[in-house]
User: What shape does this take?
Amino acid sequence: MQPLFAVARLTLKAAIRYRLVLVLGTLLLGAVFLLPSVVKHDGSAQGFTQILITYTLGAIVTLLGFSTLWLACGSLAREVEDFSMQLICTKPVPRWQIWLGKWLGIMTLNAGMLIVSGATVYFLLLAKSGSLSPAQQQVLQEEVLVARKSAVEVIPDIESTVEKAFQERIRRQAVAGMDRSFVRKQIREQMLAQMQYIRPGQGRRWIIKLDPGSAEHLKDHPMFLRVKFFTPDYSGSNATFDFGWEIGPPEGHQRQRFANNLAPESFISFPIEGNHIASDNSITIDAVNLNDRPILFPLEDGLEVLYHEGGFGLNFARGLGILFCWLGLLAAVGLFAASKLQFNVAAFVSFGILMIGLSSGTLKQVVEQGGILGVSSEEGIVVQKSMLNNASVAVYGSLRWVIDQVVGFSPIDALSTGRSITWGQLAQAVGVVLGIAAGMFAVAGIFIFNRRELAAPQ
Assistant: This one.
């Protein structure tokens, strides 16, 4: 493996020779120190973390992402164009080791830059937190500088109920001739809507299961409800809505009861007591709609319980690990494009792949409508099944799954809201982002690079 590490060292030396390290280091330090100085927060814990975590880490990842693509394209394509790669390939070094050596050198540079800039953000966050008021410092410690796990209600399986209602409905003459998948879809959406809406003066109950032992170890730690709701009549307005809440076992007499006034269409967190967890480690939450209009709580993220799981330092390190996996994918994309193309074209193709990956709406549409041919404009689904439609759903569904795994979870958002980034999520990033997504580009890039005629006129 000596040739592989030798190529990695040469790649690092090339980055230093191009002054990329100096320029990138200056930009990263500027993002870390100047951004919090230029953009002032409003004195709240949320505004403080918005600048020092969301904006600063976002700027760091953006700078490292663009430099990774540029270096990946340039380190391979430029060496082919100036004929230095031909000299390397005359030595007994397999081309796959050259390709992976380039990737390893780029990722070594990324690791160093990410560790230094990430550690600076972390210590700057702790150092500047003293400028907040005592009340906001407490909010910071309880809601941001912590790893909070999220628990949501398990969405019940309604397929048997949908099938029963479907069998009853198709007996009607007006429905018998309609597309059966469309009728099932309508029934399913109607049932899901009934589960999400709370009518005026009525209530909705959530029973949320927590981790084993939560009833014991969460007594001394604050818990939070994070809610998001919608109302059709006030979409986009500044109106607020009144709710009544009861927390704890329904049969208990010491339930926590309170009322609050909340704004729609945005996530809102508020504290609840941690001593109302049942012996089976579940917590029962009742909400009453005290308004004269219906309220909709989405099933996926309408209500969740946030509770203490660990410290912020290790959580921050796991977040940086996921960001490092993202950079590994970008390095593989850049090297894949440079395996065949000249530098300018390779850079254009790399950014094109990146944009396609970030806009997965078309993939979602193809999967939901059941194909790409014969789609009914009225019903929004494929009228007639075919092999092409089945194949497109399989291919597009697989691509969408990979893209969702890559960009579906943001460690920066999790860190900004004090969410726990688990070891499982980090392992998933390593397996899916590096193992599957970056691995596919690596296999394709190595195959193309092996078959490329380097002696041909460029």
Observations:
- The mean pLDDT is 83.
- The CA atoms of residues 251 and 288 lie 18 Å apart.
